[in-house]
Predict the structure.
Amino acid sequence: MTEKELNQPGYEIPPELRNQVAVTTIDRIYNWSRRSSIWPMMFGLACCAIEMICTAASRFDLARFGMEVMRPSPRQADLLIVSGTVTKKMVPQIVRLYNQMPEPKYVIAMGACASGGGPFKEGYNVVSGIDNYIPVDVYIPGCPPTPQALLHGLITLQKKIDSQTLREARWYKKEVSEVIPVPVLGPDIMDPREYELIRQYSKQKSAAGATASAGADSNPTSTE
Amino acid sequence: MSEQMILTQTDLAERFPGKVRRDERKGYEGYIVEADALLQVAQTLRDEMGYDYLSSITGVDYLPDGYMESVYHFYRTTGGPALVLKVQTPRDHAVVPSLVSLYPGAEFQEREAWDLLGIRYEGHPDLRRILMWEGFAGHPLRKDWREPYYEEDAKPFKSRWPDGHVYRIEDKNPFHKNVDYPPDFDPDQWVADNDAALYASLAKIQSTLDSSLKTDTVIVNMGPQHPSTHGVFRMVVLLEGETVRALKPVMGYLHRNHEKIGERNTYIMNMPFTDRLDYLSSMSNNFGYALAVEKLMGIKPPERAEYLRVIMAEFTRISNHLFAIGSLLNDLGAYFTPMLYAIEERELILDIFEAVAGSRMMCNYFRFGGVARDLPEGVYEKMRDLAFERLPRRIDELDLYLTNNEIIRARCEGVGVLTPEQAIAFSASGPLLRASGVPYDIRRADPYSIYDRFEFDVAVRYHGDVYDRYLVRLDEIRQSIRILQQALRDLPQGPILAGKPQYQVRVPPGEAYGRVEAPKGELGFYVVSNGKPNPWRYHVRAPSFVNITALETMAKGNKVADVVAILGSIDIVLGELDR
Ligand code: SF4
């Protein structure tokens, strides 16, 4: 059934009920209510968070989109706005927060840092984009994105929500949704899914480094 | 104190023959002290010569010469220039005595130098890593330590310039991300106990607590995701009932490797990076860095540029303090209403920044020897309107509604007290220091730029509690408005940059420490040049970072709910705290 057919049930609405009753689909009304009351998590990482606060304040006013209810607890939030530089030291916490959010949940990568590392990408403690660890729905460019850009990103997210349908919603599927393993802070950050790879790499490196190992003490992680 | 000060700087080398000598390297200043005499010299400085304020500690890795240097900048709180001490120590066994026993404010700075440079401070009470996590491999600021995305020692990278090609650095890494592991490493054997040392040091305090009542203590983690820690800051508090017995700040969740990146960048490339230090007051950060490099280069900006700089820096101070007051009120529970009023005014200031610099927050406006752009049309009138009409009115309004509010007074008065002696000992700066009754403002004590031309009062209050810190900020906004009015009145016409705009500046070898009174306190840049296009050492003495050293002292004995207010009254920003 196409959307048009869905919205035209094929019978006459009595005149006294016109403008009182709206006939629509479950999908539509479900998405409409969800997209008009997104609760973002109150979660700021860096400079971009300041622009997020400004967006929530009176000049730009997130309340126009039903998003002014910022919740500090992930259990009550629908949307994680990753607003700033993601560092290795912080990633375990972000993944944990994401896992704690109930479905349906969305992630916005706000700014250059969250999208791909940004100006600090080359830093040893910086993650090149949060999408290395958790799935992202909308990316917002800018350093920092202006409040207008953030609003545009949020509207884009609303469009995405509009296009979803109950039939395919992963949060109503039988199988439980997968929990993302929390990274571990070792000599460098370690994704538990990559342990085998790390072991191989490290072995290779010690084989290669057996011949050339200079200044190893202060500098065990240098690469060639 | 004046009699004590008869001992002048020149005496130092004679006073400790064989232990202290002048630093004779070209472009350097101060004294080189033998490690075993450091404590004695520092004691003399503090007790006899009046250098009671240890502003900055950092290290420099002189790789080609094979030694590390620990660098100290001392000041007198009565004003005047710095006295610089240096201790040299071999790279492979870098040990320097700790100054924490004399200057408690050294605690976190020494931990930072240990973490990033691997200088071990003997006698430090709690020498743990501070920005990176316990277990991280290596000391990243050492010159031979390379990050996973290492390309070359210095920019511009040959692969991109003059006509190279750009590739994604991820593609060169076997994991396709920013990681690297030491040889012979087995992740399954790894025991993740990054916080073990932290909890151990708390347990030590726990065991010393004795109370007549039998109570259990609990350890509570606040942050890094907490609505009132102003970002990704974490506090581990040891509570007895609701009373704080110990507090350990944990930071580094926003450590963006500012200094390592800064040492690969060319001088001018660092300017936009300084914006992102204290992202609420980017103009002040620009100011400090520009001063440090100009000191090295020996140039001065033209008159109009000096005025523009002061105007921008003072607008920044106002917008920063507005934000600080707003978020302090947030922390006190006046959720978002005062904040909205504060942000409203801040937006107007941001409009000016956007007009002159092109960006609301990341202004990147200063250049070595001037500023980047002149005022566009209409901006001068806007600034006048703000400084003469709107802001004074709005500040009075804030004052009227907040200052005598009963709840604010009840929550803030007498909470988180820092005595003047403590404030100086902890190297506190900015409003935190001045609210404790120490009238120390770098704009007065060691004037830079053209601040000696303006009439303003150093805001000072005497109780050292949260309430006085709030009042000092309010006073400072008023003083800034005064400076703005004078600067706007006198703003001359003329060029805005000394010489031609350059992409690469020539910086003669040497060292320089440029410091400004940033809204949050003393912001210092320690830059060492070896004549190449990139700084050899680039260190930021961040006010938030040093001010946080006093947090435990202020919080101890207070209720846990007050810790939030105390933290809010310090006014930290994580970009600068963690760098
Ligand atoms: S994208 Fe830019 S403004 Fe945003 S967090 Fe990164 S550096 Fe800061």
